[in-house]
Amino acid sequence: MKLDYQTIIQRLSFVAALFFVFWLPLFEGFMPTIFGVWIGFWFMEGNFKTRFTQFPFKSNLNLLFLAYFFLSFIALLYTSDQNKGGMDVQQKLALFAFPILLGGSSSYFWKNSRWIFWAFIAGLLVASIYDLQSAYVASKLAGVDQEQFRYWVYERHENVDFLTLISMRMSYFSYGYLSQFMHPSYFSMYLLFGIAVLLQNLKKHPSYLKNGFVLFLVLFFTSMIYFLQSTAGFIGFIVLIISAIFIELSLFKKMTFLIPFLLLVAIIATLLFIPYLSNHEEIQVFDIEKDSISTSSSIRVELWKNTIELIENKFLIGCGPGDTRELVKTQFQKKGLAKYATGDYNMHNQFLESLVGLGVFGLGILIAILFLVFQKAIQQKNKLLFYLAILLLINFLFESVLNRQAGIFFAMYFISLLIQLPQKKALFSAL
User: Fold this and answer.
1) Is the confidence at residue 292, as pLDDT, over 80?
2) If DSSP codes are grouped into helix, strand and coil, which group holds residue 287?
3) Distances, alpha carbon 117 to alpha carbons 2, 112, 122, 351, in Å
4) What angle in degrees, to the nearest 10, is found between the helix axes of 231-250 and 208-228?
């Protein structure tokens, strides 16, 4: 078959989109370059009028994405730190960039869209293997003088067993020591979505060999989630399994009642876990059986407890995203928590991040976006979109997902893809 210019560019654009999603779990520093290559091929396709004939520019969800971006842009007017505020606005460009990029993708893209998910799975597999290999090398090097495989980080843990150190986050095979490319909470979110994708494919392949490979990947990714020891990852796993069972049994007939149920489960789990986190501050670090798992847990608690004081009389419009981190430092110093004031922390909670940075309007738009994503998933009977919304909800409670490239790129790519996928596949399969 002879390939013309348009066909070649469409295929190159699709390959760039594949490589983008493959690279999501890998080194974050290359993502802007890969993103730029994809955009370049996308523009080279031309013929924009035809490509956007069916695009819902005035959909409520797209308008909310745009509103959240413009709210972030307007916040530059009252943000003291213009550099950080400008960086935040750059991140938020993804809110309308991805819906437009995917909405204007070619028929070739949508007809072959299943490979997008497999590219993501391949990226997760490569990232996981790299992390485990790095942990193995670190353990070998740490014990080279003693000619031992030293999987423990600190000498005082030499006689502590492997699984205990994993749960304490004190092994090279655990938490931040293991996750080389991003924070463990983000990687756990990626892995959980990968598991959801694999389970959806499990039913489509009657082959024992294919199903066996899929099950192996599910077990492997589940093991990685355990090693990462992310609280959001554990809660997300439990809620994902519960919701999957519910969905498979009810077939979306009672989804209206599932949303508040999942919200309740997530909030209760978080509230129950907070006292446990707070107690770690009182634990003696030399008590091997009760060693602190991480100071990050205590930091989160302090951030969450002081949210209202951070914005004081700026409740409506917030303090501006560029000033959030500096306000956090000031608040830590004010509370006598000098050991935390040296860090550069966000709110570690997207709802609170939106409230502090953009005020009650930003928080309201964020909640509306999440609600509409759930609503779209129910209307379309789109299970993967629903699972994605669950994972975002859980991680919004523990991380400022939309303030990190690893979070907003992942969220917007797959939200845009999954919302448009049913309509696009139906449209182009008829051609």
Assistant:
1) no
2) coil
3) 29, 10, 9, 28
4) 140
Least confident of 109-118, 151-160, 323-332: 323-332
Specify the range with the lowest mean pLDDT, choosing from 35-39, 143-147, 166-170.
Answer: 143-147
Comparing C-alpha atoms, which of 200, 101, 16 is closest to residue 415? 101
Longest Cα separation, the chain: 72
Tokens standing for 400? 């400022």
- pLDDT for the residue numbered 341: 54
Residues 399, 248 contacting (CB under 8 angstroms): no
Parse the chain into domains and list their residue ranges.
Answer: 1-43, 67-97+276-431, 121-229
**Is the per-residue pLDDT at 428 higher than 80?**
no
The number of CA neighbours under 13 Å toward the Cβ of 111 is: 10
Q: How far apart are alpha carbons 176 and 187 in whole angstroms?
A: 10
CB atoms within 10 A of CB 210: 13
Residue 395: CB atoms within 10 Å: 26
Q: Is the CB of residue 418 less than 8 Å from the CB of residue 193?
A: no
In whole angstroms, give the CA distance from residue 116 to residue 323. Answer: 37
Measured distance CA(4)–CA(25) in Å, rounded: 34
Nearest CA to 100 out of 420, 410, 383, 346 is that of: 420
- Whole-angstrom Cα distance, residue 156 to residue 104? 57
Nearest to 343 by CA among 314, 303, 401, 400: 303
One-letter identity of residue 322: G
Q: Is the dihedral of CA 353, 355, 361, 364 positive or negative?
A: positive
**171: three-class secondary structure by DSSP:** strand
* Interatomic CA distance for residues 85 and 108, integer angstroms: 38
For the ranges 2-6, 82-86, 209-213, 392-396, which has the lowest average pLDDT? 2-6
As beta bridge partners, residue 152 has 171
Quick one: CA torsion of 131, 397, 217, 412, rounded to 10 degrees?
A: -90
pLDDT, tens digit, for every residue of 343-391? 666 778 888 888 888 888 999 999 999 999 999 998 888 999 999 999 9
Query: Is the pTM for the entire model greater than 0.90?
Result: no
